[in-house]
Known about the structure:
nucleotide-binding; binds dephospho coenzyme A; 5-stranded parallel β-sheet; Rossmann fold; globular; P-loop_NTPase; 53% helix; binds adenosine-5'-triphosphate
Amino acid sequence: MTLVLGLTGGIASGKSTVSRWFGDYGYPIIDADVIARQVVAPGTSGLRQLTALFTPAILTADGALDRKKLGAIVFADRRQLAQLTAITGPLIRQEMTRQLVELKRSAPGLIVLDVPLLFEAHYQQIADLTMVVYVDAPTELQRLMQRDQLNETAAKQRMASQWPLVAKRQLADIVIDNTQSLAATKQQVVKFLTQYDLQK
Length: 200
Ligand SMILES: CC(C)(COP(=O)(O)OP(=O)(O)OC[C@H]1O[C@@H](n2cnc3c(N)ncnc32)[C@H](O)[C@@H]1O)[C@@H](O)C(=O)NCCC(=O)NCCS
Ligand SMILES: Nc1ncnc2c1ncn2[C@@H]1O[C@H](COP(=O)(O)OP(=O)(O)OP(=O)(O)O)[C@@H](O)[C@H]1O
């Protein structure tokens, strides 16, 4: 039997931190942010489509996507963010689905889908259970500014480009509270693994 866990949260709420722990237990992770990078790597049709839409100004000198530059454009403008997602969304979905089919065959147990836009993009439909890593908005803002060296305006724009974390929390089957210490958060993950008999 395979359990597909849809893991999500807000930007910088701690998804990667939690997903790393599942990885430590040996469970496979399908990471939407990693796939989002692969589908626009140099030489891909994804990058060609982005360059056609946003002009070659979004490329670095060696022809790769300048992620900082594109991020500054799209997180400040909802219309352009929607245009970006219209290109990357289907490419990400195709690759995630491919990996999921393959892992269901080869890795019984638990498969973790780490997807920032799990609910916004309806990925909960392919998950058996959903888990939201929750922090309060002020803590999220502070961690985001610190991790990505963003000013308050840029960090708030990024948070506003996703559903509010409280809305995601309401939809989740399991809520992991990541407002306290990492140890306290890990305890909740271990409890989940124990409850579902996934400790190994
Ligand atoms: C705009 C880009 C180039 C900025 O790159 P950068 O390296 O600075 O950020 P990174 O990719 O690590 O994303 C950081 C976080 O931003 C948030 N985020 C990314 N894309 C989006 C989006 N389309 N809408 C809302 N939030 C987003 C996520 O929480 C993500 O974890 C990049 O985020 C991107 O290509 N986004 C589109 C792909 C996408 O939709 N990804 C989400 C997968 S579900
Ligand atoms: N409990 C915690 N206490 C203090 N700092 C934390 C805690 N959990 C995570 N962090 C820090 O907060 C930041 C965001 O965590 P992480 O990168 O795991 O979030 P994320 O949800 O994966 O982000 P993104 O959506 O941008 O990919 C990181 O710098 C991480 O080290």
